[in-house]
Structures are given as C-alpha cells and as structure tokens.
Amino acid sequence: MSSDTAHAKRALRAELRERRRILSRHERDEARDALTRQLVALAQTLGARSLSCYLSTPDEPDTRPFLRWACEQGVRVLVPVSREDGLLDWALFTDADEIEDAQGMPAPDGEVLGPIAVNEVDLMLVPAAAVDASGMRMGWGRGYFDKTLGSMDRRPPVFAVVFDHEIVESLPAERHDQRVDGVVTPQGIRRFDR
Predict the structure, then answer these.
(1) Binding residue ranges
(2) Which annotated residues bind substrate (predicted)?
(3) 13 close to 141: Cβ distance less than 8 angstroms
(4) Domain 3-141+152-191, second-level architecture
(5) Residues linked to residue 126 through DSSP beta bridges, in sequence order
(6) Do residues 85 and 160 make contact, with C-beta atoms less than 8 angstroms apart?
(7) Could you say which DSSP state residue 61 is in?
(8) Residues in the annotated binding site for ATP
(9) Using CA atoms, how far apart are residues 124 and 155, in angstroms rounded to an integer?
(10) What is the pLDDT along the chain (194 residues), one digit of tens a residue?
C-alpha cells in the first residue's frame, strides 16, 4: 500500500469514527428505526431465506432490530465471528447471549461454523466505514470482509450498511479492496452496477 493511500484511509476513518461518536441518542434512535425498515424491505425484495449480517457495535448502524425481525420470519441468519488468523467463522444468530470474539467484536454464544458456512446465504449485509459512488467499500482496516468476499466462489448480493453521510463520491482503494452490490442507509437502498 502506498503511504499516501494508507494516510488517506487513516484520516478518513478517524473523521468517520468521530462523526459516529458525536451522533445524539435521538439521531441514533431515528436512524435505527429507519434502517430497520430499509433492511426489511431489502430482504423481502430479494426473497432472502438465509442471510449474513454483523452484530453492530454501539457506534455502528444498529442491526439488532432487523436481526430479530429476520429470526421471527424464519430467515436463517449467520453472523461473523473473527478469528486470530484474519478469517471469519460464522454462527447462527438466535438473539441469545453474546460474547466477544478474538477481536473484541460481539458474537453469539453458540456453535461456531467454519468460514464456508456463508457460501449458502441469499444476501450478505456487511459493515463499512464508507462506500463510494462506484460501490467501493472501505472497512475499518482489519480486512476480514475483504478476504471473505474476495475468496467466495458464488457471491450473493452484498450490501454495506452505513449512515447516510457515509456515502461519499470516491474512496482511496487498494487492489484487495472489494466492491459491494449496494448500500443500505436509513434513507434508502442504493444499488451499484457491477
């Protein structure tokens, strides 16, 4: 990675983290409710009977109401569990107790499935720091989702989940960075041509 690209990514991530940190409780609650409606609409439109989605941290767009809805509808939901080797395992979401995985991220306290468990889902919802107008996704720098997406033989539709202000015109990118098929924000769903 060039030092200019690395610096640009670090600076943008810091700015985005700060913007997330200063969102008010009211703004977060409104975003959660609107985002849940958008995620439900996407899952219904795609007819997803199985999906993968992350368990949000306090600063991320809140996915838990959507995950509970999906389980109530009988949708099979896999959530990522990060490993020390930089890969993702997967576990079934049951809205039961949570633990922290190898990277301190929330994970379900249940049976862990291997990395290939995600190959059978109809829809992938992934976290992001930002997404640009071409569908380039910038994560938080650990590379878990880029590795997963880059290694899949049969990739289902992949949508990043971000706040509205995190769709930007362009992002610094490297060869390993992966594009997404769309983005979901509280204000709507946007698809990208691939």
Answers:
(1) 9-13, 55, 60
(2) 55, 60
(3) yes
(4) 3-Layer(aba) Sandwich (3.40)
(5) 160
(6) no
(7) P
(8) 9-13
(9) 9
(10) 467 888 889 999 999 999 999 999 999 999 999 999 999 999 999 999 999 999 999 999 999 999 999 999 999 999 999 888 888 999 999 876 677 776 777 777 778 898 889 999 999 999 999 999 999 999 987 778 888 888 888 899 999 999 999 999 999 888 888 899 999 999 999 999 86
Which residues define the annotated binding site for substrate? 55, 60
Between helix 25-46 and helix 64-72 the angle, nearest 10°, is 30
Helix or strand (DSSP H, E) at 189: strand 188-191
Helix and strand numbers (H, E) in the chain are 4, 13
Residues 145-165 as b/e (b if ≥16 CB within 10 A, e otherwise) read: bbbbbeebeebbbbbbbbbee
Rounded (5°) CA angle 187-159-194: 110
Q: Do 126 and 161 meet the contact criterion of CB atoms below 8 Å apart? A: yes
Establish how many alpha carbons lie within 13 A of residue 92's alpha carbon, considering only the half-sphere containing its beta carbon: 8
| Alpha-helical regions (H) of the chain | 3-21, 25-46, 64-72, 144-151
Q: Which residues contact 5 (CB under 8 A, 6 or more apart)?
A: 172, 173, 174
Q: Nearest Cα to 120, choosing from 85, 77, 150, 86? A: 77
